[in-house]
Protein backbone atom coordinates (compact mmCIF):
# COMPACT_ATOMS: atom_id res chain seq x y z
CA UNK A 1 0.00 0.00 0.00
CA UNK A 2 2.86 2.39 0.81
CA UNK A 3 4.37 1.77 -2.64
CA UNK A 4 1.06 2.58 -4.35
CA UNK A 5 0.71 5.73 -2.25
CA UNK A 6 4.15 6.94 -3.35
CA UNK A 7 3.41 6.12 -7.00
CA UNK A 8 0.11 8.04 -6.83
CA UNK A 9 1.83 11.01 -5.18
CA UNK A 10 4.47 11.16 -7.92
CA UNK A 11 1.86 10.69 -10.67
CA UNK A 12 -0.26 13.56 -9.32
CA UNK A 13 2.91 15.66 -8.99
CA UNK A 14 3.64 15.04 -12.67
CA UNK A 15 0.11 15.82 -13.89
CA UNK A 16 -0.30 18.91 -11.68
CA UNK A 17 3.01 20.45 -12.74
CA UNK A 18 2.36 19.67 -16.40
CA UNK A 19 -0.86 21.68 -16.19
CA UNK A 20 0.62 24.63 -14.30
CA UNK A 21 3.78 24.88 -16.42
CA UNK A 22 1.94 24.86 -19.75
CA UNK A 23 1.39 28.65 -19.54
CA UNK A 24 4.77 29.57 -18.01
CA UNK A 25 6.55 30.53 -21.24
CA UNK A 26 3.74 32.62 -22.78
CA UNK A 27 1.89 34.05 -19.74
CA UNK A 28 2.87 37.68 -20.35
CA UNK A 29 2.68 37.71 -24.15
CA UNK A 30 -0.84 36.25 -23.89
CA UNK A 31 -2.00 39.05 -21.58
CA UNK A 32 -0.43 41.66 -23.87
CA UNK A 33 -2.17 40.08 -26.87
CA UNK A 34 -5.50 40.57 -25.05
CA UNK A 35 -4.94 44.31 -24.72
CA UNK A 36 -3.24 44.69 -21.33
CA UNK A 37 -0.23 46.98 -21.01
CA UNK A 38 2.89 46.08 -19.03
CA UNK A 39 1.68 47.83 -15.86
CA UNK A 40 -1.68 46.05 -16.01
CA UNK A 41 0.08 42.70 -16.53
CA UNK A 42 2.00 43.30 -13.31
CA UNK A 43 -1.18 44.36 -11.51
CA UNK A 44 -2.76 41.03 -12.45
CA UNK A 45 0.18 39.24 -10.85
CA UNK A 46 -0.08 41.62 -7.88
CA UNK A 47 -3.55 40.15 -7.32
CA UNK A 48 -1.98 36.69 -7.18
CA UNK A 49 0.53 37.73 -4.50
CA UNK A 50 -2.17 39.47 -2.45
CA UNK A 51 -4.61 36.55 -2.59
CA UNK A 52 -1.76 34.17 -1.74
CA UNK A 53 -0.92 36.20 1.36
CA UNK A 54 -4.54 36.60 2.53
CA UNK A 55 -5.75 33.03 1.91
CA UNK A 56 -2.84 30.92 3.19
CA UNK A 57 -4.28 30.51 6.70
CA UNK A 58 -8.03 30.19 5.85
CA UNK A 59 -7.43 27.49 3.24
CA UNK A 60 -5.14 25.66 5.68
CA UNK A 61 -8.10 25.44 8.04
CA UNK A 62 -10.10 23.66 5.32
CA UNK A 63 -7.38 20.99 5.06
CA UNK A 64 -7.45 20.47 8.84
CA UNK A 65 -11.23 20.30 9.08
CA UNK A 66 -12.22 18.40 5.93
CA UNK A 67 -9.01 16.56 5.07
CA UNK A 68 -5.97 16.90 2.82
CA UNK A 69 -7.66 15.06 -0.05
CA UNK A 70 -10.59 17.49 -0.16
CA UNK A 71 -8.20 20.45 -0.05
CA UNK A 72 -6.06 19.12 -2.91
CA UNK A 73 -9.06 18.23 -5.09
CA UNK A 74 -10.48 21.74 -4.59
CA UNK A 75 -7.06 23.14 -5.55
CA UNK A 76 -6.98 21.24 -8.84
CA UNK A 77 -10.49 22.30 -9.88
CA UNK A 78 -9.93 25.94 -8.89
CA UNK A 79 -6.73 25.99 -10.96
CA UNK A 80 -8.66 24.43 -13.85
CA UNK A 81 -11.45 27.02 -13.56
CA UNK A 82 -8.93 29.86 -13.40
CA UNK A 83 -7.18 28.66 -16.55
CA UNK A 84 -10.40 28.27 -18.52
CA UNK A 85 -11.46 31.73 -17.36
CA UNK A 86 -8.11 33.12 -18.53
CA UNK A 87 -8.62 31.64 -22.00
CA UNK A 88 -12.04 33.31 -22.28
CA UNK A 89 -11.16 36.71 -20.73
CA UNK A 90 -10.54 39.95 -22.60
CA UNK A 91 -10.38 42.59 -19.85
CA UNK A 92 -8.19 43.45 -16.87
CA UNK A 93 -10.94 42.80 -14.31
CA UNK A 94 -11.69 39.31 -15.62
CA UNK A 95 -7.99 38.45 -15.72
CA UNK A 96 -7.60 39.70 -12.14
CA UNK A 97 -10.57 37.56 -11.09
CA UNK A 98 -9.12 34.51 -12.83
CA UNK A 99 -5.75 35.17 -11.16
CA UNK A 100 -7.40 35.37 -7.73
CA UNK A 101 -9.14 32.03 -8.30
CA UNK A 102 -5.83 30.42 -9.30
CA UNK A 103 -4.10 31.93 -6.25
CA UNK A 104 -6.73 30.52 -3.91
CA UNK A 105 -6.28 27.18 -5.68
CA UNK A 106 -2.56 27.38 -5.00
CA UNK A 107 -3.12 27.96 -1.28
CA UNK A 108 -5.48 24.98 -1.04
CA UNK A 109 -2.64 22.71 -2.23
CA UNK A 110 0.06 24.44 -0.17
CA UNK A 111 1.20 21.93 2.43
CA UNK A 112 -1.94 19.75 2.11
CA UNK A 113 -0.66 17.52 -0.71
CA UNK A 114 2.63 16.71 0.99
CA UNK A 115 0.87 16.31 4.36
CA UNK A 116 -1.41 13.70 2.78
CA UNK A 117 1.61 11.68 1.66
CA UNK A 118 3.30 11.81 5.08
CA UNK A 119 0.15 10.97 7.03
CA UNK A 120 -0.80 8.15 4.64
CA UNK A 121 2.65 6.54 4.88
CA UNK A 122 2.64 6.83 8.67
CA UNK A 123 -0.77 5.17 8.74
CA UNK A 124 0.70 2.20 6.86
CA UNK A 125 3.81 2.12 9.11
CA UNK A 126 6.18 3.12 6.33
CA UNK A 127 9.51 3.42 8.14
CA UNK A 128 11.87 4.36 5.29
CA UNK A 129 13.17 7.97 5.05
CA UNK A 130 11.05 10.39 3.03
CA UNK A 131 14.05 12.17 1.54
CA UNK A 132 14.30 9.90 -1.50
CA UNK A 133 10.62 10.52 -2.32
CA UNK A 134 11.06 14.28 -2.18
CA UNK A 135 14.17 14.08 -4.36
CA UNK A 136 12.16 12.18 -6.99
CA UNK A 137 9.39 14.77 -6.63
CA UNK A 138 11.86 17.60 -7.31
CA UNK A 139 13.28 15.90 -10.40
CA UNK A 140 9.78 15.22 -11.74
CA UNK A 141 8.72 18.81 -11.04
CA UNK A 142 11.76 20.28 -12.79
CA UNK A 143 11.64 17.89 -15.75
CA UNK A 144 7.93 18.10 -16.44
CA UNK A 145 7.96 21.90 -16.02
CA UNK A 146 10.41 22.17 -18.92
CA UNK A 147 8.35 19.77 -21.05
CA UNK A 148 5.11 21.54 -20.13
CA UNK A 149 6.49 24.99 -20.95
CA UNK A 150 7.78 23.86 -24.36
CA UNK A 151 4.50 22.06 -25.16
CA UNK A 152 2.50 25.12 -24.10
CA UNK A 153 4.66 27.44 -26.19
CA UNK A 154 4.20 25.14 -29.20
CA UNK A 155 0.42 25.34 -28.74
CA UNK A 156 0.68 29.13 -28.42
CA UNK A 157 2.00 29.29 -31.97
CA UNK A 158 -1.39 27.93 -33.05
CA UNK A 159 -3.41 30.12 -30.68
CA UNK A 160 -2.23 31.95 -27.55
CA UNK A 161 -5.30 30.71 -25.65
CA UNK A 162 -4.52 27.03 -26.32
CA UNK A 163 -1.95 26.65 -23.48
CA UNK A 164 -4.58 27.85 -21.00
CA UNK A 165 -7.18 25.43 -22.33
CA UNK A 166 -4.63 22.60 -22.28
CA UNK A 167 -3.60 23.50 -18.73
CA UNK A 168 -7.24 23.68 -17.62
CA UNK A 169 -7.95 20.21 -19.03
CA UNK A 170 -4.82 18.74 -17.41
CA UNK A 171 -5.66 20.26 -14.00
CA UNK A 172 -9.20 18.88 -14.33
CA UNK A 173 -7.69 15.44 -14.99
CA UNK A 174 -5.50 15.87 -11.89
CA UNK A 175 -8.61 16.67 -9.84
CA UNK A 176 -10.49 13.62 -11.13
CA UNK A 177 -7.49 11.35 -10.44
CA UNK A 178 -7.12 12.76 -6.92
CA UNK A 179 -10.85 12.43 -6.18
CA UNK A 180 -10.88 8.83 -7.45
CA UNK A 181 -7.67 7.40 -6.05
CA UNK A 182 -6.59 9.45 -3.03
CA UNK A 183 -7.76 7.73 0.16
CA UNK A 184 -7.80 9.19 3.66
CA UNK A 185 -9.48 6.47 5.72
CA UNK A 186 -7.44 7.39 8.81
CA UNK A 187 -8.45 11.07 8.81
CA UNK A 188 -10.01 12.46 11.97
CA UNK A 189 -11.68 15.83 11.61
CA UNK A 190 -10.02 18.50 13.74
CA UNK A 191 -12.02 21.10 15.61
CA UNK A 192 -10.34 24.26 14.38
CA UNK A 193 -11.78 27.52 13.12
CA UNK A 194 -10.84 30.44 10.96
CA UNK A 195 -10.53 32.51 14.14
CA UNK A 196 -8.01 30.08 15.64
CA UNK A 197 -6.09 30.06 12.35
CA UNK A 198 -5.89 33.86 12.34
CA UNK A 199 -4.76 33.84 15.97
CA UNK A 200 -2.05 31.35 15.00
CA UNK A 201 -0.98 33.64 12.12
CA UNK A 202 -0.84 36.64 14.49
CA UNK A 203 1.21 34.65 17.02
CA UNK A 204 3.61 33.57 14.25
CA UNK A 205 4.14 37.14 13.09
CA UNK A 206 4.62 38.54 16.62
CA UNK A 207 7.07 35.79 17.61
CA UNK A 208 9.00 36.27 14.39
CA UNK A 209 9.16 40.05 14.76
CA UNK A 210 10.39 39.73 18.34
CA UNK A 211 13.13 37.30 17.31
CA UNK A 212 14.08 39.41 14.28
CA UNK A 213 14.53 42.45 16.52
CA UNK A 214 17.05 40.45 18.56
CA UNK A 215 18.81 38.53 15.77
CA UNK A 216 21.11 40.29 13.32
CA UNK A 217 21.24 37.17 11.12
CA UNK A 218 17.45 37.02 10.82
CA UNK A 219 17.20 40.73 9.99
CA UNK A 220 19.87 40.24 7.32
CA UNK A 221 17.97 37.37 5.66
CA UNK A 222 14.62 39.19 5.79
CA UNK A 223 16.01 42.38 4.22
CA UNK A 224 17.97 40.42 1.59
CA UNK A 225 14.86 38.46 0.64
CA UNK A 226 12.59 41.50 0.42
CA UNK A 227 15.14 43.36 -1.73
CA UNK A 228 15.69 40.43 -4.07
CA UNK A 229 11.99 39.70 -4.58
CA UNK A 230 11.51 43.41 -5.29
CA UNK A 231 14.23 43.43 -7.95
CA UNK A 232 13.51 40.14 -9.75
CA UNK A 233 9.93 41.05 -10.64
CA UNK A 234 11.26 43.03 -13.63
CA UNK A 235 12.94 40.05 -15.35
CA UNK A 236 10.28 37.63 -14.10
CA UNK A 237 7.46 39.58 -15.75
CA UNK A 238 9.22 41.15 -18.73
CA UNK A 239 11.66 38.60 -20.15
CA UNK A 240 9.03 37.53 -22.70
CA UNK A 241 8.32 40.99 -24.21
CA UNK A 242 12.03 41.90 -23.99
CA UNK A 243 13.26 38.84 -25.92
CA UNK A 244 10.26 38.69 -28.30
CA UNK A 245 12.08 40.96 -30.80
CA UNK A 246 14.83 38.33 -31.10
CA UNK A 247 12.68 35.19 -31.30
CA UNK A 248 10.99 33.90 -34.46
CA UNK A 249 7.98 32.19 -32.83
CA UNK A 250 6.23 31.38 -29.55
CA UNK A 251 7.79 27.89 -29.37
CA UNK A 252 11.14 29.62 -28.86
CA UNK A 253 9.81 31.03 -25.57
CA UNK A 254 9.38 27.46 -24.37
CA UNK A 255 12.98 26.54 -25.14
CA UNK A 256 14.20 29.73 -23.47
CA UNK A 257 12.12 28.90 -20.38
CA UNK A 258 13.70 25.44 -20.43
CA UNK A 259 17.12 27.13 -20.49
CA UNK A 260 16.12 29.25 -17.47
CA UNK A 261 15.10 26.16 -15.51
CA UNK A 262 18.29 24.28 -16.39
CA UNK A 263 20.46 27.27 -15.40
CA UNK A 264 18.77 27.49 -12.01
CA UNK A 265 19.38 23.77 -11.48
CA UNK A 266 23.06 24.25 -12.38
CA UNK A 267 23.34 27.16 -9.94
CA UNK A 268 21.76 25.13 -7.16
CA UNK A 269 24.13 22.23 -7.84
CA UNK A 270 27.21 24.47 -7.49
CA UNK A 271 26.02 26.42 -4.45
CA UNK A 272 27.90 24.46 -1.79
CA UNK A 273 31.10 24.52 -3.86
CA UNK A 274 30.72 28.30 -4.17
CA UNK A 275 30.21 28.54 -0.41
CA UNK A 276 33.45 26.66 0.23
CA UNK A 277 35.23 29.01 -2.17
CA UNK A 278 33.87 32.13 -0.41
CA UNK A 279 34.54 30.60 3.05
CA UNK A 280 31.75 32.67 4.63
CA UNK A 281 27.96 32.28 4.29
CA UNK A 282 27.17 35.98 4.61
CA UNK A 283 29.83 36.98 2.07
CA UNK A 284 28.59 34.31 -0.37
CA UNK A 285 25.03 35.66 -0.12
CA UNK A 286 26.14 39.26 -0.67
CA UNK A 287 28.29 38.39 -3.71
CA UNK A 288 25.51 36.31 -5.31
CA UNK A 289 22.91 39.04 -4.62
CA UNK A 290 25.12 41.65 -6.30
CA UNK A 291 25.62 39.21 -9.19
CA UNK A 292 21.85 38.95 -9.62
CA UNK A 293 21.50 42.74 -9.72
CA UNK A 294 24.38 43.11 -12.17
CA UNK A 295 22.90 40.44 -14.45
CA UNK A 296 19.50 42.15 -14.49
CA UNK A 297 21.10 45.46 -15.44
CA UNK A 298 23.56 44.06 -17.99
CA UNK A 299 21.00 41.98 -19.93
CA UNK A 300 19.16 45.01 -21.32
CA UNK A 301 22.36 46.80 -22.36
CA UNK A 302 22.94 44.46 -25.31
CA UNK A 303 21.10 44.44 -28.62
CA UNK A 304 22.89 41.31 -29.87
CA UNK A 305 20.75 38.31 -28.91
CA UNK A 306 23.54 35.78 -28.07
CA UNK A 307 25.14 38.23 -25.65
CA UNK A 308 21.87 39.43 -24.12
CA UNK A 309 20.51 35.91 -23.58
CA UNK A 310 23.91 34.68 -22.35
CA UNK A 311 24.04 37.34 -19.63
CA UNK A 312 20.38 36.70 -18.75
CA UNK A 313 20.93 32.95 -18.36
CA UNK A 314 24.07 33.57 -16.30
CA UNK A 315 21.98 35.72 -13.95
CA UNK A 316 19.57 32.75 -13.66
CA UNK A 317 22.51 30.52 -12.62
CA UNK A 318 23.30 33.00 -9.84
CA UNK A 319 19.65 33.02 -8.77
CA UNK A 320 19.80 29.23 -8.54
CA UNK A 321 22.96 29.62 -6.47
CA UNK A 322 21.34 31.98 -3.96
CA UNK A 323 18.45 29.83 -2.66
CA UNK A 324 20.52 26.96 -1.15
CA UNK A 325 23.02 29.47 0.29
CA UNK A 326 20.16 31.34 1.96
CA UNK A 327 18.68 28.11 3.36
CA UNK A 328 22.06 27.08 4.82
CA UNK A 329 22.65 30.48 6.44
CA UNK A 330 19.09 30.71 7.79
CA UNK A 331 19.03 27.22 9.29
CA UNK A 332 22.49 27.67 10.82
CA UNK A 333 21.45 30.96 12.43
CA UNK A 334 18.08 30.24 14.06
CA UNK A 335 17.21 28.03 17.07
CA UNK A 336 15.53 24.71 16.32
CA UNK A 337 12.53 25.46 18.56
CA UNK A 338 11.75 28.59 16.48
CA UNK A 339 12.71 27.13 13.10
CA UNK A 340 9.27 26.43 11.60
CA UNK A 341 7.87 29.78 12.71
CA UNK A 342 10.79 31.82 11.40
CA UNK A 343 11.02 29.99 8.07
CA UNK A 344 7.29 30.61 7.59
CA UNK A 345 7.75 34.31 8.40
CA UNK A 346 10.73 34.56 6.04
CA UNK A 347 8.61 33.06 3.26
CA UNK A 348 5.76 35.50 3.97
CA UNK A 349 8.16 38.45 3.80
CA UNK A 350 8.89 37.63 0.14
CA UNK A 351 5.33 38.66 -0.73
CA UNK A 352 6.04 42.20 0.52
CA UNK A 353 9.05 42.63 -1.75
CA UNK A 354 7.29 40.91 -4.64
CA UNK A 355 4.19 43.11 -4.48
CA UNK A 356 6.26 46.31 -4.28
CA UNK A 357 8.48 45.12 -7.15
CA UNK A 358 5.49 44.36 -9.37
CA UNK A 359 4.12 47.89 -8.97
CA UNK A 360 7.55 49.51 -9.41
CA UNK A 361 8.77 47.54 -12.43
CA UNK A 362 5.38 47.53 -14.13
CA UNK A 363 5.08 51.32 -13.86
CA UNK A 364 8.55 52.04 -15.25
CA UNK A 365 8.31 49.38 -17.97
CA UNK A 366 5.04 50.85 -19.26
CA UNK A 367 5.66 54.56 -18.82
CA UNK A 368 9.44 54.59 -19.51
CA UNK A 369 10.82 51.37 -21.01
CA UNK A 370 11.67 47.77 -20.13
CA UNK A 371 15.43 48.55 -20.02
CA UNK A 372 14.70 51.41 -17.61
CA UNK A 373 12.74 49.09 -15.30
CA UNK A 374 15.51 46.47 -15.34
CA UNK A 375 18.37 48.95 -14.82
CA UNK A 376 16.55 50.62 -11.91
CA UNK A 377 15.58 47.26 -10.33
CA UNK A 378 19.09 45.82 -10.65
CA UNK A 379 20.70 49.06 -9.52
CA UNK A 380 18.52 49.29 -6.42
CA UNK A 381 19.39 45.68 -5.57
CA UNK A 382 23.15 46.34 -5.85
CA UNK A 383 23.11 49.64 -3.93
CA UNK A 384 20.93 48.38 -1.10
CA UNK A 385 22.97 45.17 -0.80
CA UNK A 386 26.16 47.20 -0.52
CA UNK A 387 24.42 49.31 2.13
CA UNK A 388 23.67 46.12 4.07
CA UNK A 389 27.39 45.32 4.24
CA UNK A 390 28.13 48.66 5.87
CA UNK A 391 25.13 48.68 8.21
CA UNK A 392 26.19 47.00 11.43
CA UNK A 393 22.63 46.73 12.71
CA UNK A 394 21.74 44.44 9.78
From TrEMBL:
The keyword Signal does not apply. InterPro entries: MFS (IPR011701), MFS_DHA3_Transporter (IPR053160), MFS_dom (IPR020846), MFS_trans_sf (IPR036259), Sugar_transporter_CS (IPR005829). Pfam families: MFS_1. One of its GO terms (molecular function) is transmembrane transporter activity. The chain crosses the membrane at residues 9-32, 44-63, 70-88, 94-118, 139-156, 162-181, 217-234, 254-272, 284-305, 367-389. GO terms for cellular component: membrane. Gene3D superfamilies: MFS general substrate transporter like domains (1.20.1250.20). Residues 1-394 form the Major facilitator superfamily (MFS) profile domain. The keyword Signal does not apply. It is a multi-pass membrane protein. Keywords: Membrane, Transmembrane, Transmembrane helix. It is found in: Membrane. This is Major facilitator superfamily (MFS) profile domain-containing protein. It comes from Candidatus Wildermuthbacteria bacterium RIFCSPHIGHO2_02_FULL_47_12. The lineage of its organism: Bacteria, Candidatus Wildermuthiibacteriota.
Amino acid sequence: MARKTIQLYLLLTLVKNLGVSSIAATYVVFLISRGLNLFEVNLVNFVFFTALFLCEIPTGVVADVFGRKVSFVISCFLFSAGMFMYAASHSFLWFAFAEAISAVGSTFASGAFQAWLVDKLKHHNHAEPLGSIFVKEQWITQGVSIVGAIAGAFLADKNLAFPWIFGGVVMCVAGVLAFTFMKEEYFVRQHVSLQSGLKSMRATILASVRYSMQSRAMRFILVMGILQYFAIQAPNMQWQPFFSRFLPDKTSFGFLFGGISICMIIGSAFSLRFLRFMQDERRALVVSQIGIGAGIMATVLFNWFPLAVGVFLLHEVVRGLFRPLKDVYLNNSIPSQERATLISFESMSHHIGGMAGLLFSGFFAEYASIPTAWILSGGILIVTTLWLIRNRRV
